[in-house]
Fold this sequence. Notes:
Elements: E1 11-15, H1 17-20, H2 31-36, H3 38-44, E2 48-51, H4 79-91, E3 95-100, H5 110-116, H6 123-126, E4 130-131, E5 154-158, E6 164-169, H7 184-199, E7 204-207, H8 247-258, E8 266-269, H9 276-280, E9 290-291, H10 294-297, H11 303-319, E10 325-327, H12 336-339, H13 361-375, E11 381-385, H14 406-410, H15 450-453, H16 455-458, H17 465-478, E12 486-488, E13 495-500, E14 503-508, E15 522-525, E16 539-543
Parallel strand pairs: 1-2, 1-11, 2-3, 3-7, 7-8, 8-9, 10-11
Antiparallel strand pairs: 4-6, 5-6, 12-13, 13-14, 14-16, 15-16
Residues 61, 64, 101, 172, 208-209, 270, 331-332 line the site of 1-deoxynojirimycin.
Amino acid sequence: MHSDAWWRDAVIYQIYPRSFADGDGDGVGDLPGIEARLTFLRDLGVDAVWLSPFYPSPQADAGYDVSDYRSVDPLFGTLPDADHLIATAHGLGLKVILDLVPNHTSSAHAWFSEALGSPPGSRARDRYLFRDGRGPGGDEPPNSWRSVFGGPAWERVTEADGTPGQWYLHLFDVSQPDLNWANADVRAEFVSVLRFWLDRGVDGFRVDVAHGLIKEATLADWHYPSAILGELGHEGPPPPMWDQDGVHEIYQQWRAVLDTYPGGRILVAEAWVQPVERLARYVRPDEMHQAFNFEYLDTPWAADPLRKVIDTSLAANDTVGAATTWVLSNHDVVRHATRLGYPVGEGRRRGIGIGDPQPDTALGLRRARAATLQMLALRGSSYLYQGEELGLPEATEIPDEYRQDPAWFRSGHAERGRDGCRVPIPWEADAPSYGFGPSDASWLPQPPVWAEYALDRQRGVAGSTYELYRAALRLRREHRLGAAELTWEETPADVLAFRSGHVLVLTNFGSGPADLPPGVTVLLESGPLTDDGRVPQDVTVWAM
Length: 544
Ligand code: NOJ
């Protein structure tokens, strides 16, 4: 039985619908494909799934460009398919979280067509951020903002009479116009969208770009990059497009709506906000339930910084009574099995391609398994990204002609973008598309190494990454690690050890083997111990 606070220590598995399982063989994953694989997730031992967007969309940003918030894109299925999937998941004891994209619509949304067909100053235009240009003839964009994906954040439209007209803001792709959250229609519409899906039984929403909805009122110039997906933090004044105080009243209103539904429905903020005390504002008791802990994801693989981020994350969330979250991979970042295969402390990579320095795959996987075992013992809720339970690396050699991420195009090919973590995942080593679907079609090419990582090569195989995840999730539940108090142990500088309740969790970052306290019983290890039972470098152990 789940309680209403199920989410406080839940393990939530991110499904990227395009790439999880393809039911009809067109090369793009879909809802029937997902539904058919839900028992796999139950057997893995997760509590909930979060599905990235499956709404009608031109797919200019892989579905984060929504043209209708109340339906399903034919690419993924139908609304009855969604209902069926939700019911099946619930039948298996899995909660279902959808992805809500409130910062922008697609330019194919009916509202945006209406805005283009309406004059400046009209009600239809006021739902978006239209402004007159600067300079003679209004030829210059209204301000200096840059799109997160590269290039200017403004696009000029042609008015009904054929003359060059106003500009609209798009913090992301040109096909993703930002909504005006000062507009009452916008506010009312999203409350209605929330209710639409809550009434269909969904258990919550992951809120896309939750820190971006309100812009500083004067739209003041800004001369730093709009790096939402890149390095957190920057030198200089607070950005006028992110983390404005006005966002919070929106989430307070949504929370009040969710609280009228039974069963513990949740809001999860995707907010690239620093420091963690600012992030904690999103999860105050009358706002969202959780916020992704990207600072943890961005922390170098070393004892000291990890200890600090764990401490500050727990402390900041504790001040507002929220459950801390932990995450290592998602559809926007290089998979952690690859990220950790580079020298420690190197900056974040925004995609990897042919000709780029390649990771040490074995080292990356070894550290990734250790990192995951550490994460799953931490108090709070953990997010997993599809394929990490297989130890899947980033696809680092996708030929450029296959790339689809708008960041690749808008950055003038300066950034490879996120396609490498979005490649359809392997289920069966010897099947077409590695069992992703019934045909050999796959919207991004699957590397030949996928065979080694396929589920059927790992299921029942002692020491496989899949069995490691399954064992970890079982033990986590058994020992209630997500709800346990964390206390640090005294250790040498390059060892990190804590107790999660009565379970000792030790990770060795140093080159020499680390000792376990005498008399403990090892419950699980991310890699083999030495012959004399010590913990080698880049291995995490759970013991009692
Ligand atoms: C964050 C999403 O995770 C990302 O995939 C998307 O491109 C942007 N928001 C814009 O919606």
